[in-house]
Amino acid sequence: MNRLLPFEWIAAVRFLREGRLQTMFIILGITIGVAVIVFMSALLSGLQVNFLSRVLNSSAQIQLLPPDQVARPLRGLGRELEDSVVQRPAQRIVSIDQWQKIQQRMLALPGILVAAPTLSGSALAVRGDASRAIGLTGVMPESYFRIIRIPNYIVTGKATLASDEIIVGTQLAEDLGATLGDKLNVQAANGNAAVLRISGLFDLGNKAAIERNSYVSLRTAQSLLGRAGAVTTIELKISDIYAAETLARQIAAANPVRAESWIATNAQFFTAVNAQKSSNTLIRAFVALSVAFGIAAVLVVSVIQRSKDIGILRAMGTTRGQILRVFLVQGGLLGLAGAIIGSCVGIGGLVWYHSLVRQADGSELFPLILDRQLFIVTLILAPLTGLLAATAPAVRAARLDPVDAIRG
Amino acid sequence: MELKGIRRSYRLGKKSQIEILHGIDLVLHRGEFLALMGPSGSGKSTLLNIVGLLDRPTAGEVFINGEDTSKLGDADITRLRGHAIGFVFQEHHLLSAFTAAENVMLPMVVDHDFSSPAIIARARALLGQVGLDHVADHKSMNMSGGEQQRVAIARALAMRPALVLADEPTGNLDSEAADNVLTLMRQINRDSGTSFLIVTHNLELAKRCDRIIDVADGRLVMPTEHLEP
């Protein structure tokens, strides 16, 4: 016996040790509960980070676009509207007015890491008899590739963009029967055409993207699309990705541009993330509740089994407070033991599952995130749950009448 | 210890109640060795619980060491019970999770902790006194009935109480073990001056006490008999 511990601790440990089988089963129950919570929380964190990185690696966090072109209704001399129906005009490709100034202004703002101008338009890629409609994006690689990490997705070749080079998706190359180093005839709708050599093939893991997307240098795109000196988008990378929406609103308010944050453009993704979080929270709450009821049930049984012991202790002068604490300590210890073992089991399960499930390309499905905070919170909450669950049985034990208890 | 006009009644349902003790007056002097006899249901155990401050009378007063316990709250009653009264039950009621020595130490850990050398020494000494120092580290389940009851007596003496209450202390023992236990209690009574109030059905045991008090239908049957000088 560790005689340095207070009586309540020694009695609690002895009672738990004596009801070995009962203690073992409830610790097993708590362990499973805690393991499920740890496993699910860490798994969902990993999946969210993975989804997030996928979204942010394939799109900018804020996009600055030219303002919408709106029709001005015709008014008569008396300023009355002459037409009651105003038709929305077709949105022509227009440049962001004074985009260089805006780019510099963006880079001067705190929290903005990169500002990359791009020009986008449609074109036709022709090789021999094959032709495909493509989305052409003209970029400055040194800034754009810091936002959209195309070099990370290059499967063949390099992410270089000289004036006669083009980077295309693997599916587009396959459809055109082209490969690295082959030349494509790229024709814009305005009749401009250029012969460009494939410098790299990328695979973003998204069929639509690898079928249609292609990247050329900004000057090549401006020349092909007949928009000399123009850019249609300034893409921004920011330090706090969750501040994107606020920052976008501030930028739109202070500049003649539309600003769209990744949060607004991926609203569905956020709905999914929130739904996931809600369901995870619900599951965790129900698991914690069932663990708490498990602890309470075992301790209620323990109080009944030990009523004579409690009566004897009370007869010998043990206070109600001491009896109360004996059972509270038991609840806390059960929670703590379950939390420690459950966390280890949860981590073990996660590591095993992480090694087991892979994406089609063999890469990890989700990053292994073992957040220290999760374990600290678990190690605090589980014993706390045990304490709370033990309250009712402990109060019952403390209230036992010694005469009735001894009589059994 | 003095009882004045002790009455104890219990509710039976919502309206009726039954009185078990009907105004009991009793004085137990320091160093007395007293037997309480009577048929089952006569109120012996109820009286013992009231004397032991485990139960409160419906009416009347209990004085322990001159202190009127009827005015004390639960915490003070518990403290007084722990310090002034020791209990020996028919079943030994040792805590199976603890060793013999630890069981003896239990009443003392209310005020101290298990690490106190004084407590450890006292538990060993008491076990020595009841002839069980060799089983100090044994769990109760590994001891005979007589040994368990002797450990229970040692535990009852742990706080040096003025009064030990014993409810059928030899009821579950064979005659030899019963004799040993009674001899031990009697010896402690003589050596330390601790008063004993023993509830028993055993007339032979009762005859070895200073006085026998008969309880019948919740009343003391007078006069009490003085047996041993």
What is the secondary structure topology, with strand pairs?
The complex is a heterodimer of chains A (408) and B (229).
Chain A: H1 7-18, H2 20-58, E1 62-65, H3 99-108, E2 112-127, E3 130-139, H4 141-147, H5 150-153, E4 154-157, E5 165-169, H6 170-176, E6 183-188, E7 193-202, H7 207-212, E8 213-217, H8 218-224, E9 233-238, H9 244-254, E10 258-261, H10 262-265, H11 267-305, H12 307-315, H13 320-356, H14 372-399, H15 402-407
Parallel strand pairs in A: 3-8, 5-7
Antiparallel strand pairs in A: 1-9, 1-10, 2-3, 2-6, 2-9, 4-7, 5-8, 6-7
Helix pairs in contact in A: 1-13, 2-11, 2-13, 2-14, 11-13, 11-14, 13-14
Chain B: E1 2-12, E2 16-27, E3 33-37, H1 44-51, E4 59-64, E5 67-68, H2 74-84, E6 85-88, H3 100-105, H4 117-129, H5 145-156, E7 163-167, H6 175-192, E8 195-199, H7 203-206, E9 211-216, E10 219-226
Parallel strand pairs in B: 3-8, 3-9, 6-7, 7-8
Antiparallel strand pairs in B: 1-2, 1-4, 4-5, 9-10
Helix pairs in contact in B: 4-5, 5-6
Architecture overview:
The complex is a heterodimer of chains A (408) and B (229). In chain A, 37% of the residues are buried. The mean pLDDT of chain A is 87. Chain A is an alpha+beta fold and 408 residues long. Chain A has helices spanning 7-18, 20-58, 99-108, 141-147, 150-153, 170-176, 207-212, 218-224, 244-254, 262-265, 267-305, 307-315, 320-356, 372-399, 402-407; strands at 62-65, 112-127, 130-139, 154-157, 165-169, 183-188, 193-202, 213-217, 233-238, 258-261. Chain A has a six-stranded mixed barrel, surrounded by four helices. Chain A folds into two domains: 7-55 and 269-407, no CATH class; 99-262, no CATH class. Chain A has 15 helices and ten strands. Chain A is elongated. Chain A is 55% helix and 17% strand. Chain B has a single domain, classed as 3-Layer(aba) Sandwich (Rossmann fold), CATH 3.40.50.300. In chain B, a hairpin with a 3-residue loop joins strand 1 and strand 2. By secondary structure, chain B is α/β, with parallel strands linked by helices. A six-stranded mixed beta sheet of chain B has the order 6-7-8-3-9-10, with helices on both faces. Chain B has a four-stranded antiparallel beta sheet with strand order 2-1-4-5, with helices on one face. Chain B has helices at 44-51, 74-84, 100-105, 117-129, 145-156, 175-192, 203-206; strands at 2-12, 16-27, 33-37, 59-64, 67-68, 85-88, 163-167, 195-199, 211-216, 219-226. Chain B has seven helices and ten strands. The chains are: A alpha+beta (408), B alpha/beta (229). The A-B interface holds A 1, 3-7, 10-11, 14-15, 17-18, 308-309, 311-320, 322, 402-403, 406 and B 49, 52, 54-55, 74-75, 78-79, 81-83, 87, 89, 93, 95-98, 102, 106-107, 109-110, 113-115, 120, 155, 159.
